[in-house]
Specification:
- By secondary structure, the protein is α+β, with helices and mostly antiparallel strands.
- It contains eight helices and twelve strands.
- It has helices spanning about 25-45, 55-85, 105-135, 245-255, 275-280, 300-305, 310-320, 335-355, and strands spanning about 140-150, 150-160, 160-165, 170, 175-185, 190, 200, 205-210, 215-225, 235-240, 290, 295.
- The strands form three sheets. A five-stranded mixed beta sheet has the order 3-2-1-5-8. A five-stranded mixed beta sheet has the order 4-10-9-6-7, covered by helices on one side. It has a two-stranded antiparallel ribbon with strand order 11-12.
- The longest helix has about 30 residues, at about 55-85.
- The protein is elongated and about 85 Å long.
- The structure holds dinuclear copper ion (CUA).
C-alpha cells in the first residue's frame, strides 16, 4: 500500500476498517460464559480413582485448583483468537484499509503482565506446600523394598531379621509405609493410582517415598514408565488390610513351607495350572479359597460365592468384576485381571476355580 493512504489519526480522516470496533464486551462476555462452562466440566469429570491414602485428598484438591485456574486462561485465549478471526477479519474491498495506529496501551500491558505473574507465583507456592506435605516423612514406617524388572514387581519385607519376597503388596491400613524403589534393568515407575504418589525406580540407586494407606481394599499397581514391550502388563495388586491380617499374612510368607510364588519372572506361559495362577496372581490376598489354603477377607469367600456357579459366571467375575457384586461387598476388585492374565491363563484359572468350588 502507498504511504499516501496513511493519515494522521488526530486529523480524523484515517480510513479505518469499519469492523475494528466490534464490541469487545461481547468477546469478554462469551469468554466468561465459556470459562464457567469449562470449569464446571473440569470439576464434574471424575478424574481419579478412590482415595486410599492420606496423601490423596490434598493432591486431588491441588488438581481441582489447577483446573479452576487454567481453564479460563485457555478458554479466554481461544475465544479471543476465534472472535478476532470471525469479527475482525478483512472483508473484500478492505485490502487498502488499516486499523488505527496504536503506540501501546500501558494499562492493558500492566494488566496482562500482573495477572499471569500473580497466578504463577500463587500456584507454584501452593503446589510447593502440597509437595512438602505429601512428602513429609512419617514416624515408624513399615519398610518395603520394591524391585522392578521387565516386567514384574517384587516386594521385600523384613521378617524376623531376614527379608521375604512377595508378588502381591500387602499393607496394614493407617500405618505409614516407606517404599525403597530399585530397578534391575531399565527405568520403571512404581505407582498405585489410589495412593496418588509415584516415582521412578532407577537402576543403581535407591529412590524412596512414603504413603499412609487409609482405606481397606485392593488397588491396582501399575508401571508408569515405558520400559519395554511388556510395560502395559507390568501390573500387580496392593492389598490394604487390618493390621492383624497383615501380620498373619507376613508370618505365613516367612515360612518356607508356604511355597511363595517365585520372585520375578512374571512371564510364565503355557502349561501353568490354575492353582499356580491363583497363587501368583495374588487372588488369595483378598479371597478365601480353602483348596488353595488362602483365607483373605477383603473380598468375598470364593468357597461360598462360587459354589455351584458355572464357568461363564466365574469368568465374568474375573474379567468384569463390577457386573455382579456379592452381598455385603462393594465394587473394588481391580478390573484388569482378564487382560493381565491373557486368554490361556484365564482359561486355566476359571477351570480350576470351577472344579474346586463345585458344590457338594
Ligand atoms: Cu516397567 Cu513400564
Amino acid at each position: 500500500m502507498g504511504l499516501e493512504e496513511r493519515t494522521h489519526p488526530q486529523t480524523g480522516n484515517t480510513p479505518e476498517r469499519p469492523h475494528a470496533h466490534a464490541d469487545w464486551r461481547q468477546m469478554v462476555g462469551i469468554g466468561l460464559v465459556a470459562s464457567v462452562l469449562g470449569i464446571a466440566a473440569g470439576i464434574l469429570i471424575d478424574w481419579f480413582p478412590l482415595q486410599a491414602s492420606t496423601q490423596a485428598k490434598s493432591i486431588d484438591t491441588l488438581w481441582d485448583v489447577l483446573i479452576i485456574a487454567s481453564v479460563p486462561v485457555f478458554v479466554m485465549v481461544t475465544v479471543i483468537v476465534l472472535f478476532s478471526v470471525i469479527k475482525f477479519r478483512m472483508r473484500p474491498g478492505e485490502e487498502h484499509l488499516d486499523g488505527p495506529p496504536i503506540h501501546g496501551n500501558t494499562r492493558l500491558e500492566v494488566i496482562w503482565t500482573t495477572i499471569p505473574a500473580v497466578l504463577l507465583v500463587g500456584l507454584c507456592t501452593y503446589a510447593f506446600i502440597v509437595l512438602e506435605n505429601v512428602e513429609a516423612s512419617e514416624p515408624n514406617p513399615l519398610q518395603v523394598r520394591v524391585v522392578g524388572e521387565q516386567f514384574a514387581w517384587t516386594f521385600y519385607y523384613q521378617q524376623n531379621g531376614k527379608e521375604v519376597a512377595a508378588n502381591v503388596l500387602h499393607l496394614p491400613v493407617n500405618r505409614p509405609v516407606k517404599f525403597t524403589l530399585q530397578a534391575k534393568d531399565v527405568l520403571h515407575d512404581f505407582w498405585v493410582p489410589a495412593f496418588r504418589m509415584k516415582k521412578d525406580a532407577v537402576p543403581g540407586i535407591n529412590v524412596t517415598y512414603g504413603v499412609t494407606p487409609n482405606r481397606v481394599g485392593a488397588y491396582p499397581i501399575v508401571c508408569a514408565e515405558l520400559c519395554g514391550i511388556g510395560h502395559a502388563t507390568m501390573r500387580a495388586t496392593a492389598v490394604v488390610e487390618q493390621d492383624a491380617q497383615f501380620t498373619a499374612w507376613l508370618g505365613k510368607l516367612g515360612r518356607p513351607a508356604a511355597a511363595a510364588p517365585a520372585a520375578g519372572g512374571g512371564g510364565g506361559g503355557a502349561g501353568a495350572d490354575g492353582k499356580t495362577i491363583f497363587a501368583s496372581t495374588g487372588c488369595g490376598g483378598c479371597h478365601t479359597l480353602s483348596e488353595a489354603g488362602q483365607d483373605g477377607t477383603v473380598g468375598p469367600n470364593l468357597d461360598e460365592v462360587l459354589k455351584g456357579k458355572d464357568e461363564a459366571f466365574i469368568r465374568q467375575s474375573i474379567v468384569d468384576p463390577s457386573a455382579e457384586i456379592a452381598d455385603g461387598y462393594t465394587d473394588q476388585m481391580p478390573p484388569g485381571y482378564g487382560d493381565q492374565l491373557g486368554p490361556e491363563k484365564l482359561d486355566a484359572l476359571v477351570k480350576y476355580l470351577s472344579e474346586v468350588t463345585k458344590g457338594g
